[in-house]
Amino acid sequence: MVVFAGCGVFLVCLGLAGVLFQEGYIKKILALNLFSSGIFLLLITLGGGRDDPVANAMVLTGIVVALGATALALALVRALHVQENT
Amino acid sequence: MSLVLTPLYFALMVFLWPKRANVVALLGLGVQFGLTLYTAFWTPLPRRITLGDWGAPLGIELWLSPLSLLFCLLSSAVFLGVGLYANTAYKNNHKERSRFFVLAFFLSLGLTLLFVSDDVFNLYVALEIVGLSAIGLSALRPTKEALRASLTYLFTTLVGSGAYLLGVALLYGEYGVLSLDLLSKALVSSPTSNIAFGLMAAGLILKTALFPLHFWLPKAHANATSPVSALLSGLVIKGSFFLLYRLWFDGGLGNETLGHGLGILGGVGVLYASVLALLQTKLKRIIAYSTVAQIGYLFLVFGLVKFDDSLVPRGGILLLALAHGLAKAGMFLAAGALVYVHKKDDLATLQGVGSYAPLSVFSFGIAAVSIMGLPPSLGFFGKWLLLLSAFEHREMIVAGVFIAGGVLSAGYMFRPLSVFFAKPTHTLSLQRPPLWLELPALGLSLGALALGFFTSHILDYAHG
User: Chunked in runs of 10, what are the mean pLDDT values of chain B (464 residues)?
Assistant: First the structure.
């Protein structure tokens, strides 16, 4: 429990630092995914563990949102790349 | 429920029939507006809706209060105006038009859900729908500047909703419920709930662009196409503000220290952004900085309620939020009509624009009246109530911020107006913008002005 919570906090901090201080959009997107993974880990740990269906449902929804956000971010980076090369 | 689902149906229909986007989309926006009116005035309020007969704590509940319906009305009215504008502005570009309407319907869906949901996790989902569709909209015309601004906007808004979700996780761990209603009953002041609310508030003020977290807003709002700027400035920031307001007052999560801090940031933000608005040379930048300043006013309420727990400051903020939604959307649309002809929004090139687009300049002026807070506009009554509350409790610094902010806003609004009315420097014979680009701006701006006459009705309705 403490290990998971600690890992969660560490991932959140690491991800946040990455989003703020990393140069380059791809690195920022990776950092954002670390950030949300940390949040999901905390959600499960704090919200009653593996057996809590509501916490599981929340994480599942969160993962879908993170996936959508990552796809949108990548699409934007790609469009920017095309614009910069023309 | 159909209030939330209507935009979804129409988003799918526009997606399926992009060529008929004009008819389908305007029909959808009209239906949405009518449905909101019906729900607001002809159904019993407030009422709780249990989705699929699964009540809290396991299921998701919606809470339809007069306050949330007022914001739904604001949202559907602005969408209707912006939709009419966009229909004309994109009439030669079917692809862009259908993309705009699909994303706009998703934005409308997210905002409506944000206004009526009563479940903190469901509210997170609504927040993400709003955020992601807003980003999609801001990148609608993929220029380099717009894409860079959208990416900054994306990282900001995702970090903001991440912080909110962390707060939800802490609250769920502590109390085991997600319904705001149950949460407010179970809530006790503890370090965990304070940290949780601190995280949620931090995420939400980042998304609302309160000074000093406003860095992303001017770029994102000024580089988007005009109808998108109108939606972003008029509505999207009200979504995250509304959520903070709900958590604060209905959820009982607010506390005095934080309120004081937010009040101070709001006050500094008003002055700082107003001065920056005075220094801008591009029209849409001026309007965007004015949005940052107006957001500052909205946050002053959290500082004032410490002294005044009557409904006066809350009523003031409600009026100000509605006024800003209508006036700022109207102003961006009016600016859009001017830019439509000129292709540029530098103040220097817009000199003398009043002689061939008088209607748009008129709408801009009417919207400016509400933004500056001159009577009889809705913006005036909002500021008036807040000023009354500040005087009553001897909060002279707050009162001073209001007066200084008012003077500064007059400065940054009169500057573009004086440019519009100056003698044209060029002899190009420019066309008038199409009528249907000019009318929506006029409607929204006049709405912000005329609703000032119904202030007491609005307040009675909201608090009744």
Answer: 86 88 91 94 89 83 93 96 93 89 96 95 96 95 92 95 95 91 89 92 95 91 93 94 92 85 93 94 94 93 72 88 95 92 82 86 94 91 90 85 92 92 71 88 95 92 83
The whole-angstrom separation of Cα B37 and Cα B392 is 36
Contacts of B443 (CB under 8 A, 6+ apart): B81, B330
Residue B308 sits in which domain range?
Answer: 255-464
What's the one-letter identity of residue B22? N
pTM reported for the whole predicted model:
0.95
Domains of chain A: residue spans and CATH? 2-84 (1.10.287.3510)
Residue from B54, B102, B144, B147 to probe the interface with A (highest A Cβ count within 10 Å) = B147
Q: Which residues of B touch A26 (CB under 8 A)?
A: none
Longest dimension (CA), chain A: 53
Q: Which ipTM score applies to this complex?
A: 0.96
* B327 contacts B448 by C-beta, under 8 angstroms: yes
Chain B residues whose beta carbon lies within 8 Å of the beta carbon of residue A55: 172
- Structurally, chain B folds into a number of domains equal to 1
In a domain, B295, yes or no: yes
Distance CA B328, CA B312 (A): 24
